[in-house]
Amino acid sequence: GEAGEGEGGERPVVLVEPYERRAAGPYPQDALRVNPVRFTPMQVEALRAAMSAGLSLVVGPPGTGKTDTAVQAVSNLLHAYPRQRTLVITHSNQALNDVFEKLLLRDVDERHLLRLGHGEELLATERDFSRRGRVNYMLGRRLELLARVEALAKSLDVPADVGYTCETAGYFFKATVAPRWEAFEAEARRAGDEEGAVERHFPFSDFFADTPSPLFAPAASGAAHLDAARGAWRHVVALFEELEECRAFELLRSSYDRGNYLLTKHAKVVAMTCTHAAIKRKDLVSLAFQYDNLVMEEAAQIMEVEAFIPMVLQNPDTATGKSRLKRVLLIGDHHQLPPVVKNLAFQKYSRLDQSLFARLVRLGVPATQLDFQGRARPAIANLYRWRYTSLGDLPGVLAPDGPHALAVPGFRHDFQLVHVADPQGVGESTPLPHYVQNLAEAEFVVATYMYMRLTGIPASRISIITTYNGQRDLLSDVVDRRCGSDARYGPPRAIATTDKFQGQQNDYILLSLVRTRAVGHLRDVRRLVVSLSRARLGLYVFCDAPLFCGCTELRPAFSQLEARPTKLQLLTAERAPPARRLDAPVDDGAVTEVEDLVSMGKLVARMHSEAEAADAADAGAGRAAAAAAAAAEGGDERARTVGGRRIGTESVPDAPPALD
Hints:
seven-stranded parallel β-sheet, globular
């Protein structure tokens, strides 16, 4: 529309006209994939900033949709500037895979995507997005498209072998296909609104005879028929355009050359980790790798030098002498974990643990802060909400009929601090330097996991995280010993450290804090924020409660945790799926309060025995029912047999019937 300012300082008038979407092709794959995510106003502002030239910062607290925003920004750039190339950088392979999996759900053709580096095997898809996998995909796609060209030529009664190469297919389009479409448009203009004119003159009706529904609906108007014909023509044009992109892979003979062409020319979205970018910078620059946009996810976890390297993966443009880079989008959260620097001198005195993202935010560079979270229950989000200036809740977590309104099956509270007292009085141990373990806490956590499995909560919805590598290994060993041989339990979805689990989430989180002598590195509030923000529906923190509740830095969160009992309160009669509402009153007589680790072990052992007895009873009842059914079936067979012949069958009698 147009905007103008009238005389006398009148307010400008904006004219808005509706946008009419073009008809898609006749096949399901031609339909546009619509983004199902409804963005908040601040996410829209972040996307608007990402489209502008220059530097853009987006601060995303936990659960505010940082990855969705980054993926939509990449999609918008690809559609708004189809000739430009975008480089996507993340700190971890897990985050890179999350970005890729969500990109595949957007209206982005997979032939434009390329992923470099290791970790691709963790992608939740069978498609191979490595350099070799994309080359094989393009070669296979070339054969499919040439077969379609042959079918089109056959439908047009063209005897020549036009589907031999991409070049012959291009000549066929220019000499035969395009002229026939132009002739059809001329006939359609002359016919006007004449009924059936579009269907009668359309030259590709035989080619589109295999569409799921008729190309021209019988009851539709002439204008609708013309729109359908134009949609079919777009399908034909897209077929030959994709074939033109495949031509380079046809001309290049070696896989090495094809892979380099894919990387430097063909792929529109290239993704890698910052580590891979640092390792392969020399190779990328020597190949004349070029890109226009840089999107950096998890920017707050990337060291400054690692953040600079992706910006200089290309030489200046030979024509202008300037860098081709136009936009840099940094997305992260400086209130979560910083870059990992193991050398304490570099970390504390050289401040190498400060990311470029955190430095820019600290210096006051304008940033867009996402302000609504849609991950955790409001009560769980309150544990870390104090760390942010304004963090609201999306309607999805406040819906009275949604999963966030239902209680955790078998638990009285949706989050709870559980004090763990070691029956042996050992507490934490350090078999190796900086390798901290707590056996009593590990046993309590695994016993709680077994209890959750016995209540019917799927293992895929439970994750166990801890703050030390030693405890992670100990938890894995205890899970293998307690649950590995019994299919009733199985392993949880993940057993990981807080640092490795950043960027991930799950419905129920069991958190082990390990330490009993000193708070340790959880005193860093950023690690606390990550630990408490991984859960969606249930969070249970196992620790030495007096030690952590007495830490001044942790008081804003632990004051809320210690407001509830520090002894685990269970509802042993409840089973999944959840039916009780979170705000429903609970009968105190139905609550089982677990005194210590020994009591929890006895409870789990009793429930395990009850489950085995129930399984044995069900199996016995099943065998009895099967035997009764077999006996009844045998009786029916005997009743139906007369003189050796089965009534209603063609079986031969055992002996001929006696003659009268």
